[in-house]
Design brief:
six-stranded mixed beta sheet; three-stranded antiparallel beta sheet; 25% helix; elongated
Amino acid sequence: MVLQVRPARQSPTVTWEALPVDYVLPDDPVENLQQPSLAAALTDALGANDRIQPAMLIAGNFGLVATVNKKIVVKAPDWLYVPQVQPVAPAVIRRSYTPNLQGEPVAVVMEFLSDTEGGELSIRATPPYGKFYFYEQILRVPTYVTYDPYASSLEVRCLQDGQYSLQTADSEGRWWIPELALFLGLWSGERLGQTTTWLRWWDQAGNLLLWSNEQAEQARQRAEQAEQQAEQAEQQAEQERQRAEALAAKLRDLGIDPEPG
């Protein structure tokens, strides 16, 4: 991943205004089928481990809105996390999210890089703004993650002194994501019939957060093991009963009542 050289630029004027009801949100297709799967796996692990609260906003390919120099700008990261947002009415579908107006600032964004020249690392400071610039200078998202699925390369940047600083992985090859109090790293294997390198979460103790299908498989194995143990116990009990009957028969042959009194 190569970042462009930063040009000199003026700070934009950013306001947080409600998106017009008739505003047509961009409906860009995803670059490949792997992107939705990567995002879904990240969210699934959080949900399966009771780490998603109703007030949070966790989504993929979802529009983030800001008004920059009096013009509406919308960018849709592949995955995002907001700690707390204002609720919407039950019948209302949330179409987008405007930080500060509709809840807290965005805490984490992720982009899965395409195999073509894209905007994930673009610092273009004029419309259409590069995503890197938008997250760093406009939304000021504390943690920006970029993952190149073609090279299985993961980079984590944190906002320091107003600019993103590339972070270093720990000895396990994982990055601490403070906003979620979890480690993020790479894991190669199969999920729902798809074998690839996935982004996965680990807790502070180093325990992998299992996906829901992995938890279901563990539960199935535990139930199967318990059933086998019950069958073994039943077989042992039957063997003990047979031995007791055999011993009683031998005692009777010797003229000894096995059940005196």
